[in-house]
């Protein structure tokens, strides 16, 4: 589990699992008499409400940790990402339940709910494996050439940032490529800041609850990125994402090259090579190598969680694809944009901590502070 917060996380995950269990109960009672089915519906709504209450407490705790003076904020970042993923998972259950019950005006179809619950089980296993602590070698035992060990560890970290980010970005670009020109992300986020639920008067109760949790996921990502700088973040995202995509399409080269350019990898490599020509303290190099290994593992874990987010977001998009009001589908497109924003700026943060979210000491900072 996420280090330091196992008790808080386990309690929160139990609430999320209770929503899935309530969805499974509804599926089991779907073709039973109306009274029994209504019992399952009421139980699902209560479970979602309890989850929402627990989620508010959990998120507030995580953000208080992020805003504290603690040096290690990685567990809180990962814990916040888990809350975003859980919100979308719960939204999946509620929206699928609403559709299965005919809240969209279509014929009732329990198969929609069954398929959604099956996919959520697979995604849950993915996340549990991701949250399990990696078997990390956080010490540098070979100190015969600490300079070359540092070079190797920094290179592995930089390559990992690029590879993991490219994997996630590819799946996001696949979804955005059909919608990039038709959506003004700034306008959408402004609309989401207002009460979007009032715009969905024809949506049933369960679907409305689901959309509310998608909005909570939005708000958590915005808060994680820094709401005060949201305008500049959006501008940077649109420009950087467009440049990444244009470079990728025009050159035909792997997406990793465009990602490395966006992260500023070559600049960090150049500074590292120059720094390693200096007379450096051996212990400083050993400590730096240990820190680089932690960076690599933490970034990998974050991107695995974001990868899970892309999967469950795609699942929601399938549920909403045929909804006549485009507002709900635009919410999902906007969520993809925020996930891409997170990947880009988090990668910059891990690479250099200059111009990113600045929640970690990136490779560039570690290089610059070698003594």
UniProtKB/TrEMBL annotation:
Keywords: Membrane, Transmembrane, Transmembrane helix. The keyword Transmembrane applies. SUPFAM superfamilies: ARM repeat. The chain crosses the membrane at residues 305-323, 329-348. InterPro entries: ARM-type_fold (IPR016024). This is Uncharacterized protein. It comes from Microcystis viridis FACHB-1342.
